[in-house]
Specification:
The complex is a heterodimer of chains A (about 325) and B (about 475).
Chain A lengths: L10 H31 L8 H23 L8 H15 L2 H24 L7 H7 L4 H22 L10 H14 L4 H17 L6 H11 L10 H4 L1 H12 L3 H6 L6 H10 L4 H11 L14 H10 L5
Helix pairs in contact in A: 2-3, 2-4, 2-8, 6-9, 7-8, 9-11, 11-13, 13-15
Chain B lengths: L9 E5 L4 E5 L3 H7 L6 E2 L3 H13 L3 E8 L3 E11 L6 E12 L5 H15 L2 E6 L4 E6 L5 H9 L5 H4 L1 E2 L10 H4 L3 E3 L7 E8 L8 E7 L5 H4 L2 H4 L10 H25 L8 H31 L8 E4 H11 L1 H6 L3 E3 L8 E4 L1 H18 L5 E8 L3 E7 L7 H6 L18 H11 L3 E6 L5 E8 L8
Parallel strand pairs in B: 14-16
Antiparallel strand pairs in B: 1-2, 1-6, 2-3, 4-5, 5-6, 7-8, 7-12, 9-10, 10-11, 11-12, 13-15, 16-17, 17-19, 18-19
Helix pairs in contact in B: 1-11, 9-10, 10-15, 11-13, 13-15
The chains are: A mainly alpha (about 325), B alpha+beta (about 475).
Chain lengths: ~325, ~475
């Protein structure tokens, strides 16, 4: 689109705008075919499947709506045409944040994997065998932490079914980033800006990274110490704890780990499992669960734990 | 809502500039081992990032923080709560796992050493295969004269221009022997040493070298400030060991240790076990010699006439916990549990923090050295009215009456040898205690363990001990 704020008075200016616009259009035209080809060929498990895209859009719109609901106080004409408009603008602004986009995308993939594991092995999305064991742990602290995580996981599953993502579930950096986005869009009138600032302060006050689902999962895994290895089995630990344990064990961001469960990321998954300390035979078990049709390359059992971590660190997409 | 429940291993408090104001063990120990001070700026990189984020964002963050302290990789779950605008944060540690760091392979250690040397070098020169100067680069003013001399001497041996200290051999020596040697640099005030980086393919002789000049002292613009800070407390007395002997001896001894370690670990090639063991003994004898030098320098200080300490209001409980934190790793290696005073205990005293810490480190270090494996060491506090007392009790072999009479004497080893002690630690500790207006005593019986008691004047203005 041609930017309306540019004054068309100067001829040079017009030329520059047109050239820019042309270049952008060309770039877009070049990417049309590869994306189209990917989308058309995509099957259900694709990272760009219709379901995944719908979930990403849904969660972003939900974040935008919660932000606006907090800032505008929902009392005046909730659901009005104006507000829907605002939500759309804010959603588009949120899409421009790559870290947020990839986080939301990874959540959509995680949910898809959770449902697939439920279908294939009847693993409860909320209560995995490991979590069940932790809840009946004799240690009161472990038991309480496990119960708190269970509640958070149950809320998250419910929200995922509705394609929603509560603000308090965002990691700290992203929570900060979305609040800044809101602040930037709220400066149009002093009145809105002031109300947004108050809402922002209240949201910061009530936020606690350690109380979110991901925070609780990390804390739970860490409190297990060496016992965290038990969570490195997707059928035993459940998808959520498996992903967190693998992220902590292999030193990769959780979002990267989630993406690595996709079938085009087999090498990353195998190396991550190895560097987290799983034996090659146990890795084969995990592959049997996640990718039954794939066999590990010959000689993989010779790749040591440190070596796997080194190869992993040399990859470009380390998150 | 903040997760209020659950065990908290340690609490800490930071200020508006991310300085750690107070911290419990084990966090305090990690802060010190990471090179920080207490109070002082947070020295644990990931924790510093987390705390400054929480402060900037203005909300609670909680994450896994991992750090290396040279011996272990520590992973901890940390929650940080900002206290408000321009204020610091409450830090709360909920889990703590430490695993030993795997030994780094020598190649990468060497390449990192080179990287650091190149970064810090203030003069660098290219040499040919026979160590003759080819080119010189330097932008240090102090080294301008040396750089000019080297440039004039292009084509000559670099050792003709920069003469090696403490080496009387015929030049040139094998380059490995000159790597790290001190040199006399014409026109320079600071002490300099050389690093030689060979250009070589494995298995061949070097085809050339990079010569780097480094100094362990800061550049001169900072030197102007230093003398003011380090105004000597004991004027007009030149110390023999501390100022004259120790600096000269330390470097050759360090090189003996480094080379013996090289032989011991067979870095230079295969060796029969017996020879590798000899090298291990050379290295440990060298380490003992270094410790002895440190102790003798301390000894000289405490024995000098004008020696005094800088008393301050301190909490002995806090010092004791810090000392226990610092030696925690060494104790765990022997399966020994150190029980420091509880965080709610306080015992205020008038003494110099650093000196009390030094005495406690010595006492706890001895206790670890002479206690059996899987035993306990207790650190307890006692308010004695005018004096405040710290007791370090162990389950070691104990001391007879006759041994107790001698144990504080200079060079007294009670017939022990080969365990890395110098026989000076307790003598120095008692001297320090007395210099602070206190005393160091022992109660023990053979087979009953030992109780070392450090007394220092208590703080009359303390609110409540």
């Amino acid at each position: 689109m041609i930017d309306k704020t540019v004054h068309p008075a100067s001829g040079e200016n017009v030329e520059a705008v047109l050239r820019d616009e042309l270049a952008r259009g060309d770039a877009m035209a070049e990417t049309v075919l590869p994306i189209l080809r990917h989308l058309v060929a995509a099957e259900d498990s694709s990272v760009f499947s219709d379901e995944i895209l719908a979930r990403v859009r849904g969660m972003l719109a939900d974040i935008a709506a919660s932000l606006l609901g907090g800032a505008l106080g929902g009392d005046e004409g909730a659901g009005s045409a104006a507000e829907t408009d605002e939500t759309g603008i804010l959603t588009r602004a949120l899409i421009d944040n790559p870290a947020l986009l990839s986080h939301v995308h990874s959540l959509a993939l995680e949910w898809q994997l959770t449902e697939r594991m439920q279908g294939r092995f009847a693993i409860d999305p909320v209560v995995s065998p490991l979590l069940q064991a932790l809840i009946s742990s004799p240690d009161a602290e472990t038991q309480r932490l496990a119960m708190t995580f269970l509640a958070a996981q149950a809320r998250w599953c419910q929200a995922q079914r509705r394609m929603q993502l509560p603000l308090r579930e965002l990691p700290g950096d992203l929570f900060h980033a979305v609040l800044l986005t809101l602040r930037a869009l709220a400066v149009r009138t002093p009145e809105i800006a002031q109300r947004a600032a108050q809402a922002e302060a209240a949201m910061r006050q009530s936020y606690d990274e350690g109380a979110g689902r991901l925070g609780l999962a990390s804390r739970l895994i860490m409190s297990l110490g060496a016992g965290a290895q038990a969570a490195l089995s997707v059928t035993h630990g459940g998808v959520a704890l498996f992903l967190t344990a693998l992220s902590l064990g292999s030193g990769q961001a959780r979002d990267v780990v989630v993406l690595s469960t996709h079938e085009a990321q087999l090498a990353r998954l195998a190396l991550a499992l190895r560097s987290a300390g799983l034996k090659p035979s146990a890795i084969e078990e995990q592959f049997l669960a996640l990718h039954p049709e794939v066999t590990l390359p010959h000689g993989f059992e010779g790749v040591g734990r440190d070596f796997a971590a080194a190869i992993l660190a040399s990859g470009r997409y380390s998150g | 809502m903040m997760v209020k429940d659950g065990t908290i291993l340690a609490r800490a408090l930071s200020d508006g500039e991310d300085r750690l104001l107070s911290a419990d063990a084990p966090l305090s120990g990690l802060q010190l081992r990471c090179g920080g001070e207490l109070p002082g700026t947070i020295a644990i990189p990931e924790l510093l990032e987390l705390v400054s984020k929480a402060r900037r964002y203005g909300f609670r963050v909680a994450r896994a923080v991992s750090a290396q302290d040279g011996a272990e990789t520590v992973t901890a779950w940390v929650e940080v709560e900002p206290l408000g605008e321009a204020e610091g944060c409450n830090i709360c540690v909920r889990s703590w796992h430490a695993v030993p760091i795997p030994a780094e392979d020598s190649t990468s250690a060497e390449s990192r050493r080179m990287l650091t040397a190149r970064h810090l070098a203030e003069l660098s020169a290219q040499l040919d295969a026979r160590q003759r100067v080819l080119a010189v680069v330097s932008d240090s003013e102090e080294l301008a004269e040396a750089a000019a001399a080297l440039e004039e001497g292009i084509g000559r041996l670099w050792t003709d221009i920069l003469s090696l200290k403490d080496v009387a051999h015929q030049q040139p020596l094998h380059w490995r022997l000159m790597d790290g040697a001190s040199v006399t640099v014409p026109g320079a005030q600071r002490a300099w040493r050389v690093t030689l980086i060979p250009h070589m393919q494995p298995g061949f002789d070097p085809v050339g070298f990079e010569l780097l000049l480094l100094s362990d002292e800061a550049a001169s613009d900072r030197l102007d400030i230093l003398p003011v800070q380090a105004a000597p407390l004991v004027p007009a007395r030149r110390s023999l060991v501390g100022q004259d002997i120790a600096p000269v001896l330390k470097q050759p001894i360090s090189r003996i240790i480094a080379n013996a370690e090289t032989i011991r670990t067979r870095l230079a090639g295969p060796l029969p076990d017996a020879y590798s063991d000899y090298a291990g003994e050379i290295a440990s004898a060298g380490k003992l010699l270094l410790e002895l030098l440190d102790d003798m320098a301390d000894l000289e200080v405490v024995e000098s006439e004008g020696f005094s300490t800088a008393p301050d209001r301190i909490d002995l409980s806090e010092v004791a916990r810090q000392a226990a934190g610092i030696l925690g790793v060494r104790a765990r290696e022997k399966g020994i549990v150190i029980e420091p005073p509880h965080q709610t205990d306080h015992l205020r005293a008038i003494a110099e923090f650093r000196r009390v810490l030094q005495v406690l480190l010595n006492l706890i270090g001895n206790a670890i050295r002479y206690s059996p494996e899987n035993s306990h060491i207790w650190i307890r506090l006692e308010d004695m009215g005018g004096q405040a007392r710290v007791i370090v009790a162990d389950q070691g072999p104990g001391l007879s009456q006759e041994q107790q009479a001698r144990v504080f004497e200079k060079y007294e080893r009670l017939g022990r040898s080969g365990d890395g002690g110098t026989g000076l630690g307790l003598y120095i500790s008692r001297s320090l205690a007395r210099a602070m207006g206190g005393e160091l005593t022992v109660e023990s019986a053979p087979g009953q363990g030992a109780r070392f008691m450090l007394d220092v004047p208590s703080d009359p203005d303390a609110p409540e001990n």
